[in-house]
Amino acid sequence: NSSESHNCAKSILTSDRLQIVVTLSEFFNETWEAANCANCLKNNSEGLSNSTEEFLDLFNKSLTCFEHNLQGQAIDLSPNNYTEVCKNCNETYTKLNDLYNHLQRMNRRGGESAHSAHLCIDVEDAMNITRKLWSRTFNCSLPCSDTVPVIAVSSFILFLPIVFYLSSFLHSKQKKRILILPKRIQSNANLVNIQEKYS
């Protein structure tokens, strides 16, 4: 009955003492928002966004690469010797890591999903799993591209006090103390001493 739709909804949703329908609805809505699920979807929520599909595709390729390079070698490898995995999967992992960083930057500006803040929980969990496998399990590492600028800035900051004191020393005028001899007659006390000697 359209004329009593509000009362009808109220009687159906809140008829029981626990209000189970309302409680479940609130739980699912809060979980959806806390997990930022909308950030993985297109604006109209018809499906996964292109960037999310691209990320999940690269994620699956990375896991397949890890698995493929470990197959048949797991018995031979010591716990810290996964050089084949690091060497063969480096390109795939680097692409995945770069895409994740790009998605984070894009998401902060309100990307495809038009929602800001964090990426959806599926993407974040997938990247966390991959990073743990890459760094902790396989002991692989990516070369840090920021090493040269960090060393340059650190060196500059370390040399600043030296430059400051050196320039301060060179540019300040060294004042030498010049003793000016008095051009007056000796004091009376000296004359009295001379007179006492002769008397």
TrEMBL record:
Q: Does the keyword Transmembrane helix apply?
A: yes
User: What does the UniProt keyword field contain?
Assistant: Membrane, Transmembrane, Transmembrane helix
Lineage top rank: taxon: Eukaryota
Keyword Membrane found:
yes
Q: Name one Pfam family in it.
A: OSTMP1
The record's listing under InterPro entries reads:
Osteopetrosis-assoc_TM_1
Where are the bilayer-spanning segments?
A: 148-170
Name a GO CC annotation attached to this entry: cytosol
Instruction: Please report the name of this protein according to its UniProt entry.
Output: OSTM1 protein
- What is the organism field in this record? Hylia prasina (green hylia)
Gene behind this protein? Ostm1
